[in-house]
Amino acid sequence: MITLTTDRASQPAATASRILDYAMGLSMGALLMIGAFIGAHSAIRYGAPFIRPVFLLVVVAMAGRLLIAG
Fold it and tell me: What pTM does this model have?
């Protein structure tokens, strides 16, 4: 609730400053919804045997990226 409130409060200032990229924001929102839909359905359909390896793969990939990036 706090994040939503601060986002809504900062939007007029960002719009006035012309630092909002609506095309980027809308495409990110749409892809987020598609990914959440696919992820939720995969989790329900395949269960823990599918989710655990995918989760570990993502964690290792992100840790490796952080180590490489510094």
Answer: 0.62
